[in-house]
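Throughout our pipeline, every protein is held as a single compact record rather than as scattered files. The remainder of this section carries one protein's record, kept here as part of the documentation.

===
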Amino acid sequence: MPQTEPKISEAYRAGALPEGRNRYINRELSWLKFNERVLEEARNPNHPLLERLRFLSISGSNLDEFFMVRVAGLVGQVAQGVELSSPDGLTPAQQLAAIYEQSDRLMESQQQTWEGLRAALEESGLAVVSPDRLDEESAAWLRDHFNDQIFPLLTPQALDPAHPFPFIPNLGLSIVLDLKRLKDGRQIRELLMLPAALPRFLRIPGSESRYVTMEDAVMFFSDRLFPGYELSGSGTFRIVRDSDIEVEEEAEDLVRYFKSAIKRRRKGQVIRLELNDSLPDGVSATIREDLLVVGSSRALVHGFIGISDLALLCNEDRPDLKFPAFTPRFPERIREYDGDCFAAIQAKDIVVHHPYESFDVVVAMIEQAAADPDVVAIKLALYRAGRQSRIIRALIDAAESGKSVTAVVELKARFDEEQNLAWAAQLERAGVQVVYGFIEWKTHAKVTMIVRREEGAYRTYCHYGTGNYHPVTAKIYTDLSYFTADPQAGHDAAQLFNYITGYVEPGELSRISISPIHMREDMEALIDAEIANAAAGKPAALWAKMNSLVDPQMIDKLYEASAAGVEIDLVVRGICCLRPGIAGLSENIRVKSVVGRFLEHSRIWAFANGRALPNDGAKLFISSADWMPRNLDRRVEYMMPITNPTVHDQILDQVMLANLIDNEQSWSMSGDGEYSRIEPAGKRFNLHTYFMTNPSLSGRGKALKKSKSVPKLRLNRPRKAQS
């Protein structure tokens, strides 16, 4: 039977399609749009005040990291004369100009947001005040505290031709003071770097929650630092340094290289200079001349410098100003087996939805494996594990009890390199076989395999996760943990680890796909199948959830599918370089972003497979990968098909669908890259509230039969008008 040719839109067939910036959104500018959405949550009146403040601080730390890594790379390209354009057609210099303009507006919005929150917090009894507003008793405490705890740590440094400009660490906050000697009027200029050991905010003892910033305290007591001088002017500034680590392919010893690179990173070149607008022009000019390089930038700030530091105020014990406390559920299926993870997994595949269901189940499985005399081997791919890691302790215990333990420790996990080096050293001392993977690629897959002796044979238990083995982020990131004892999944996991540890390219895999080997091709084949279904008149659709969509090749494939009539719904939390809803190019593609109480992190995609979605016949996958060139070409990732009916229903009919129908914390993306908050037209639906208050499917076990069934979600989309 001859195949039907795909029905492609005329504009797409004719090749009369936009290119460059009319075809793709710039990656860096799209990220800034995401951070604007984070900042908007700080203005959301539906959130408690301290949660709004937390969103504001997150927008600040996000921006710091953006400059330390992404902008630093562009500055380096400009310095080297690189003019290679990004897929949207912008040169590095053009990107920097657009970034600086957009980030300056973002920083101005941050200051306005802080002023509004500061006033609202003060009305609620939590105030950041200047020292001159303190009563006599509080002022006396601050004076004594300054003399005893702050003064000894401060080192004034003169700024004049005889004293070279001192080194200032990354994100270091400094004060410049112009002083006049009282006896003869002589002018001096002094620099004070605030040591990292000093807190940014000082909490004043008493019943009221009052804080004074460290810089205000220092300037208030400047006469103690400079007796005989009068303060005539002052201001603060902060620097952001290049903090990325480039791995050289010829590095012979990866551990030694990273130890050295971490030290060098602390002295990276200045990428961003944030200056308080109260600084005298002469001081500002001197600082710029001494610190800035070609391509780097400065920002004049009217207000509080270092927005990320506001996170410290969120530790205040004010439950009335925070989200209601939430306790994750432990899967009842495992409780039914008296906490025996292996028995529960052997009986049936399980998916656990974090943070609604506790990450403790992952830890419990690994701790059980460490203590179980029938377990002979544990292999685990660590990307991020946090500072206080029970998982690391379990691996050490397992190795010390004689088990074969292999840990893939990713040294290239950005900003966790130092912690991962420390974990690697501890693991090696305990006898764990520590492997660092590929020099040029990151191992980003989150997989554990446990080999257990059962009835004279060996059975492999696996955990495939979309998130990290990190106990802190597991409480705020939404991720999926898939547990299975399927022999095919275990065989594939073994091949994945052999690839990482011995560079042995896998043979035929039964279930998973791996990047950078063939995941891209497998994903494109799935999209091609939907295009063929559309041509055959069958239902053709694609639903995908991810953190970022950047890869031009995948974007072009989605454009091709849209032109063929495939209905595409994308939930992309962060960067999205695809332009949705463009006639002849992407009119069948819709993009939304969810930003709320939890950070949406799971990667899920579903293909209609000729059936009307949602349907058991749909092909469903979870993954550790986003659709970015680095994930598909330069990282070790996995893509796992979900075939167990209960797990399939939970992920597709609950998790994926809930993301699509959320209308309380969702944003809709337009073809020009702008986002608008979705306003509920009818019934309101908050996906985070839904999962905090409704049971899941696969982890419920017998409890599901005893309770009323999990609510069915529905996606109601208006029918297209017939032409």
